[in-house]
Amino acid sequence: MKVEDIKSLFLDYKETSLYGRYITNNHISSLLKEIGVKASVEVIGKSVLNDSIYGLKIGNGNKRILMWSQMHGNESTTTKAIFDLLNTLLNEKSDVEYILEACTLYIIPILNPDGAKAYTRINANKVDLNRDAQDLSQPESKVLRDAFKRFKPHFCYNLHGQRTIFSAGTSNKPATVSFLAPAQDKECAITPNRKIAMEVIGVMNTALQKVIPKQVGVYDDAFNLNCVGDTFQSENVPTILFEAGHYYNDYNREQTREYIYVSLLESLDYISKNVIEGNNYECYLQIPENDKCFYDIIIRNAKNGTNGEIVDIGILYQEKLVNGVVNFIPKIEKIEKLSGFYGHKEFDANELGVFDEDDLLVKAGYENVFVILNNEKISLLVK
């Protein structure tokens, strides 16, 4: 598909009731009722705290694709994109009915509803579900495993979100979208089903380069069988990890949401129209590996109060849920020379001191809503 056409579909079918970073079962329950008129929606299990885990099935094609989102409860961007995608696929005017004729999709929109409600990575038992693929110690892990066994997918889409620290390679470009074709053995061999996953990722990357050039990365493929993607890949099902990352000044991940949508629709278009054997996998190998080169804010050339040397101040936002709203609290992480690092926003202290609200020099570990820089009060909050 042409990227311009996908972007146009996104504008037409974006689910406007979903916005921001805090997405829970309460936000999607009414949407699932609406979808249930056109698709199969069911409760496939319960969380630790007895909240419902939903699965929905659309399409009647022979190519089966399993997707799950919010395995980590605070990674919600892909959930928003899923509902944008569903609106598109289930509307006859979108002219993409061929996808559902070729493919059947089984989607778990929120695998970890307790984590989503608490806005945490882990579940209510404080377990990272993406490290529970072998032990299956948690009810949510068992739900996903059961769905995998029942549906017998040809492809798996493991949908996540990543922090603002990630760069595409060591460049000053953020990794706005990242992918991985997980390893399936300790040798990280490029196996036939990994090649298939790599080929699909290559197609998505080609599309994304037209809208976010040099802002796509891949993760290190170190093997860990406790991870769900590695486990499913090891069972010879081509598996793709999606990571929704940062776009400039997009802390609500609304712009990134569009790029995930582009990725999802482009990949489904490709799968629906082609027999994929992995012959075109090598383009995946050209995508730069993620690095951690970003702070949310860097204040350059600040005078250090300890010895008067000139240093940089690196600030990262801490995400905190307050009354149903995710707040971004600036916290000073590093006070040292930060050459090789970039700020999503940068200021120059011009070799002067940087002070807090009490007119004291700022210190590492402190949370500062604003700083005094060059005798000017500078807000560090997300705007």
UniProtKB/TrEMBL annotation:
Gene3D superfamilies: Zn peptidases. InterPro entries: Peptidase_M14. Residues 10-242 form the Peptidase M14 domain. SMART domains: Zn_pept. Transmembrane segments: none annotated. It comes from the Bacteria. Belongs to the peptidase M14 family. PANTHER family: PROTEASE FAMILY M14 CARBOXYPEPTIDASE A,B, SLL0236 PROTEIN. This is M14 family metallopeptidase. It comes from Thalassobellus suaedae. The lineage of its organism: Bacteria, Pseudomonadati, Bacteroidota, Flavobacteriia, Flavobacteriales.
